[in-house]
Design brief:
Length: about 575
């Protein structure tokens, strides 16, 4: 019996009617997803001229018999959908069934397939069946799409330049490789190898292929679950960021999705760890019962709705927070030369090892595989108590009135004194405002604050916000307000400046999100009230600052996401000064 069933018309209509093949990547996507559905463990994508001239996708999947090989080009035929209910389960990737006939209608297409018994070759040009013949092939399917849009010149013009087309394909294949570490992906354009994963199931290895070994080394593994969701994958150290959101890769049941809520939860998790303009590297798969999700059925969209969003939010935010808090995140300064040296050194060691094992020939692939495992071996220390992440540091001196140089048994540190003080004060203010301690300080002499006409009118409207913060305040008339007492946590030494700042925030705040409001106050006050660059502090003050920094929840960045501290390890210092030469 044929595996391909003809879909009923109703269902075909339900699949968004506007399905069109727009770009090279739409073709690659359809073919790759067909290969995955055919249980392929190896998928090779070869392009000529970014695929505009030729796209060749071959796999080792189940293949097709002669009947299916022809039937798959008729409209609304698909082996993937059996009834409407299936549409809402996203276990199957390509739920179109329309795309293959569409692709065949605008190109010169060759299908070579074999179910392990009979091989079939089908040739279609512009949607017309040219020939069908027997052929030999190992189990699997190859589809060659030549001259895309050759018979629709208007669409051909719509293709962007070769670079853009290739960038889109690369991005897509990278993400599929990340979604399916068990599948061996190979992407080639004009004989140039762009991606080559080993199909070993090791996601970190795929990450190193896609983003490079240095990024892979700075990834933190995630594997958590609650009643409804399981989240697995990797999130990056805060030091590894970029300005593009495209490095957040999220899957739901291995299907690539783009969901603004998920992205926001992730970025919130990194709040103050990275500047707001930056994005961490994220590769996460969310496993969930398909009953709990609603897939937008338009095939080109990848959005999804979760029916238990709260429990997902809680699990994801908690996990990111915990993962970031259990490590020492101080960026380590390294000489680039040393990285190269170490890789070549490891290569040498590997070659030596092979010699010992009397292996005559070692393929490059074998070598690079082994090299990868060498490179990702170092296990980072996990700290149960976050106060242990940084050992006590002893100040050595102050550089440019700004950077404290310090040391301990692990190495040398450079601390930005303003950023460090800002972090300490930020956490102090956040905690103070978070506790419901109504403790107030009375002013001996009430503070009169004069405002402009318009500010005065606005502030009178929003007076309750100040009262909520534990200010005792009254309208004094003539554009003036009188502050009689203030919350206990306000710094005495710059009181009127601090109060002015808070009033400015109250005036500028449009929607009162209580968390954002208090945070804004905390960040503004922390910045204003912290020692500045060029404040020449003495040794005891430095030591005190470093001790207090170590006690914070996140000693690694200021509330703006800038680093507070960087380090040269002992090892790195010895390396830089080539000290090993003399021993
Ligand atoms: Zn600042
Ligand atoms: Zn800052």
């Amino acid at each position: 019996m044929s595996k391909i069933l003809v879909m009923n018309e109703n269902l075909a209509n339900k699949i968004a009617a506007g399905e069109v093949v727009e770009r090279v990547v739409s073709v690659v996507k359809e073919l790759v997803e067909n290969s995955i559905d055919a249980q392929a463990t190896e998928i090779k994508i070869e392009l000529i001229d970014s695929g505009v001239k030729e796209i060749n996708v071959s796999d080792n999947g189940v293949g097709m018999d002669k009947e299916d090989a022809v039937l798959c080009f008729s409209r609304h035929a698909t082996s993937k959908l059996k009834d409407e209910h299936d549409l809402f389960n996203i276990e199957h990737l390509g739920f179109r069934g329309e795309a293959l006939p569409s692709i065949a209608s605008i190109s010169k297409l060759t299908l070579i397939t074999s179910n392990g018994k009979i091989g079939t070759e089908v040739l279609i040009e512009g949607g017309t069946l040219v020939s069908t013949k027997k052929t030999s092939r190992e189990k699997g399917t190859t589809i060659i799409v030549k001259d895309l849009f050759y018979n629709t010149p208007v669409r051909l013009k719509y293709l962007k330049n070769l670079y853009t087309e290739l960038a889109n394909v690369t991005d897509y294949v990278d993400k599929m490789a990340l979604a399916y570490p068990n599948i061996k992906f190979k992407l080639i354009n004009n004989d140039k190898l762009l991606l080559n994963t080993d199909g070993s199931g090791n996601l970190l290895k795929v990450i190193s292929k896609v983003y490079g070994i240095e990024i892979a080394k700075k990834m933190i593994e995630v594997n958590v679950s609650n009643e409804d969701y399981t989240i697995t994958g990797y999130i990056s150290y805060p030091e590894e960021t970029r300005t593009t959101r495209n490095i957040i890769t999220t899957f739901v049941n291995n299907r690539l999705i783009k969901n603004q809520d998920i992205n926001r939860i992730i970025l919130d998790g990194y709040h103050t760890y990275i500047p707001v303009s930056k994005t961490p590297y994220i590769v996460l798969n969310i496993e969930v019962d398909p009953i709990l999700i609603d897939v937008n059925i338009h095939p080109t969209k990848m959005d999804i709705k979760f029916s238990k969003m709260e429990t997902l939010t809680e699990l994801l935010s908690k996990t990111i927070k915990e993962k970031l808090e259990e490590r020492n995140l101080i960026p380590e300064l390294k000489s680039y030369k040393h990285k190269e040296e170490s890789i070549s050194k490891k290569l040498e060691q590997l070659v030596e090892k092979y010699k010992e094992e009397e292996k005559e020939e070692v393929t490059y692939e074998e070598l690079s595989l082994d090299l990868d495992s060498y490179e990702t071996e170092e296990e980072p220390v996990i700290y149960e108590n976050k106060k242990d992440r940084i050992k006590k540091m002893y100040p050595v001196g102050l550089v440019k009135g700004t950077y404290i140089v310090a040391e301990n048994e692990d190495g040398m540190y450079i601390i930005d004194q303003h950023a460090a003080a800002e972090r300490i004060n930020y956490e102090k203010y956040m905690k103070a405002m978070g506790t419901h301690d109504n403790h107030m300080m009375d002013l001996l002499i009430p503070l009169k604050i004069e405002l402009s006409n318009s500010d005065y009118i606005v502030l009178k409207e929003k007076m309750d916000k100040l009262i909520d913060l534990n200010f005792e305040i009254e309208d004094f008339g003539h554009n003036t307000i009188m502050v009689r007492s203030h919350p206990y946590w306000l710094p005495e030494y710059a009181l009127s400046e601090a109060i002015r700042k808070i009033i400015d925030i109250v005036l500028s705040e449009k929607e009162f999100d209580p968390y954002k409001f208090t945070e804004k106050i905390a960040i503004t006050l922390a910045c204003k009230m912290s020692i500045k660059a060029n404040d020449h502090i003495e040794m005891p003050a430095m030591e005190d600052l470093l001790d207090r920094l170590r006690q914070t929840d996140n000693p690694f960045t200021c509330p703006h996401g800038r680093p507070t501290i960087i380090t040269y390890s002992n090892y790195e210092l010895e390396k830089l000064f080539m000290r090993s030469m003399e021993s």
